Every structure is written in structure tokens, then in C-alpha cells.
Amino acid sequence: MDIIIAGAGKVGYNLARTLSPVHNVTVIDRNAEALARLQESLDILPVNGDIEDPRTYRKLIDKEADLFIAVTDMDEANLISTLIAGDTIEVKRKFIRLRNEFFAKSSIREKLGIDEAVFPLELTSNTVEQLFAYPRANNVKSFAYTPLKLISLRVSVEAELLTLEPEGFAVVGVEREKEFFIPEGGSAEVKTGDLVYLFGDEERIKALCPRLEVEAPESIERCVVFGGGDLGISIARKLIEHGKEVKLVEEDLKQCHIADEALEGEVMTLSCKYGTAELFEEEGLAHADMLIAATGNDEYNIIKCLEAKEHGIQKVVAVNNEMEYYNLMHSLGLVVVRGPKMSAYHTIVERIHSSHVVTERKYCGGRGVILLRKVFPGSVLEGKKIKPYRSTGEALLYLIREKEMIRFTEAMKLMAEDVLIAFAHEEETEKLEQWFHGL
């Protein structure tokens, strides 16, 4: 595909890095140094110019684009660039990153012909919100077309080896000492410290959680949020909606006032300009059930989570903004939630690789891939007998029929409403995609 990316920041860079090996990628930005760094390591076409200036697009006047992606930090710039690009060059699809959730409810997306709008703040806040219902989990993913869920949790029970056999769920991934693998047959022997990914009936998985994770709280009522920026405010708002007791901690006094006003005084806002160690005791932070470090600084988030652990807070959540910190956070036993920029990057990549036929998702920091395809009534797949995918690497395939999970290991005749779902190591992605699209 011919892809144009407006914005060479972290999201734009990561998108270019992922997409340029297999697509023709053009990156537009007025920061010449950022473009030069991109060109040094990636095979891209740099265009130096203001994405809000129509003159910038004159260099691309004869170019057709399969996809235009606007991913700067400014909503206005992304909206204007999408409008100009659509008016100046031939663009088949438009993706846009937006901070203001107002646009999710407005008709502006339809008016500008935007195919996909990604709201990173909402994505991160929703991920944290899922943890209220699953206090022992690290992450929860829901899917279109099936009520079954993917739930990850840390094994904290002291055990050399614990055998997990499929029973209404399957083990579809294990992260152990920075390595990720997909066990054969959906069963696995796990040990203390493993991060286990379970897919299946959520009630079955919920019942299993207390056997594996014994350190997390049974319920979450009292919460502390570090970071009074847009993300911290968004997370605090979600907590309030669920009736949680919330304390928000922010270094900048001015930002404390902004957060207090935005949250209409419904949370206790604390300034930690002169240090935070005493706050854990003096302000009762140590009595929280969950602490969420939601600043844009991963190192700060890690430190606050470790401090919280030392003070006895059972569940600590670190927002991950930089890819290089993902493994470190996991190795420290922290619950890791994608930050807004990471959420934007992963969501856009997933939607690019998805189609109206096949849905693609990522898990375990992108090292695992999920492909899903539904058999709609009247589909060419209805009544068709198909052979299973023959994996040369790590992959698990299931057919979901009326909530029942069936291992897809032999030829089967598909029925309307069936859902095919595969969990595979990232190295298996290309071959698996070809199989799914070729059905």
C-alpha cells in the first residue's frame, strides 16, 4: 500500500518503522531533524512542511494514497490535514488520532470522510476500567462476534509447576522471564512469576484467578492516581463513575487546580511538589486497593509503583508510554497498561491489518497476534468444509460455536454464526493471514 503519515513524533515514527518494510511510506512533518532521523533508519519518503498548509501537499499532487494517517498531538492539526489531504490528493482511506472525546460523539468524522478515528485517552482509560471487574487480572480484552474474553494474570502462588488444562478456556500464551511462547494444545505448566494469557468463558477464568493470583485484592474500592494531566483526569473520571474513592496526586500545583476543576471537586487532589514518601502515610495512600501511575514519564511511573508496593498496596498499575520500558515493567511484576501513544500505535496497526473480513488484534506487547473471522449467514464459508491451518511455528486455532470452543485440528464444515479465532506468535502472522484471507 501507499501510506502517508502526518506527524513524525513517537506514534508516527513507530507506525513508519512497522509499516515501511512492506509498504511505501511517506512521512510529513515540519521538523526537519525528526524527518532526518527517520530517513537514517527507515526506507521512507520524507516531506518537510506544515501539515496544515495546503502548499505542503503540492509535492504529492500526483500521488495516490491507499491510506492517510494523521497522528500529531494536536486535534486541530490532524483534522485540518485530513481535510486538506482529501481535497488535494486521491486518498482511499483516512485514519485520525484525536484527544478530545467530543469528536467521538459529533458528526465531524462523517463530514470529513474519516474511516477510523482513534481516541487514545479513552482506550487507556477503558483498559484501566476493565480491571475494576477483574481485580486479579493484568489485562482484559473483549472481541467482536463472541462473548469470550482474553484475560491475562500474573502467577503469584508459590508453586514449582502448576498444570493448567483446558476447561472452558485455553492457555493461549505465557510470558516467562521476558520470553513469550504459545503452548501446544491450549494447556500449559506454569510457575510463579509467569504472566499467563487465558482465553474463554470469563466465569471459568474468574474462578481460576484466585488459584493463580493470591496477592491482588479481591475487590477495588480505594484508588490513587499519580498524574493530573489529561490521562490522569480521564482515569479518575472513570473511577468516580464506578463509585470508587479516588485521590489524585500531581507534582505541578497549577495542574492540580486544573484537575480539581475538571473533576468538579469529586476527588481529593494532592500536590507532591516536595516529595511523595510522606504522602503514603500522612494522606493514607498506603490504604489504597490500587495505584495507577499515569504520567507520561515511564521511569517516574515505575518508581511510584515500586514505592506503592513497598507501602503494601497490593495492585499497582504502570502506564507504558515507551516500548523499551515494556519488558522492564513486566519483569518488576507491575500491571502494564498501554499509554495513549502506545494505544494509538497498536490500535492503528491492528485496524490497518484488519479488513471487513478478518479482524486482527495484538497482545503481549505485540509479540502475539490474534486473527478472527466470522461466518455470516449467506457467506461463501457457510456449509463449506475446510482443512485446518498447518502451523510451522507457534499457533492455536479454535472454532467458536454457540460459546463452545472447539480445537480446530481436523477438517470441519462451517455453519452460520461460527467464529474462527487464532492465537499465534508474531513470526507466524504473515502465513496465518494468508490462510484466513484465502478461506
Provide structural commentary.
There is one protein chain. With 439 residues, the protein is α/β, with parallel strands linked by helices. It contains 14 helices and 26 strands. It has helices at 10-19, 32-41, 75-88, 102-105, 108-111, 120-133, 202-212, 230-241, 253-262, 277-282, 298-310, 326-331, 340-353, 429-437; strands at residues 2-6, 24-29, 45-48, 64-70, 90-97, 116-118, 139-143, 146-154, 162-164, 169-176, 179-181, 188-190, 195-200, 222-226, 245-250, 268-271, 290-293, 315-320, 335-338, 359-363, 368-374, 385-386, 395-401, 404-407, 412-413, 419-425. The chain has a six-stranded parallel beta sheet, sandwiched between helices. Strands 16-15-14-17-18-19 form a six-stranded parallel beta sheet, with helices on both faces. It has a five-stranded antiparallel beta sheet with strand order 7-8-13-10-11, covered by helices on one side. The longest helix is centred in the N-terminal third of the chain and has 14 residues, at 75-88. The relative contact order is 0.10.
Structure described in brief:
31% of the residues lie in helices and 30% in strands. The chain is α/β, with parallel strands linked by helices and 439 residues long.
Helix-strand makeup class: alpha/beta
| Radius of gyration, CA atoms, in whole angstroms | 23 Å
Number of domains: 4
CATH topology of the largest domain, by name, is Rossmann fold
Number of strands: 26
- State the major sheet: 6 strands, parallel
Our estimate of the beta-strand percent is 25-35%
Q: Name the CATH class of the largest domain.
A: Alpha Beta
Rounded mean pLDDT score:
90
Please state the overall shape, judged from the principal axes of the Cα atoms. Answer: globular
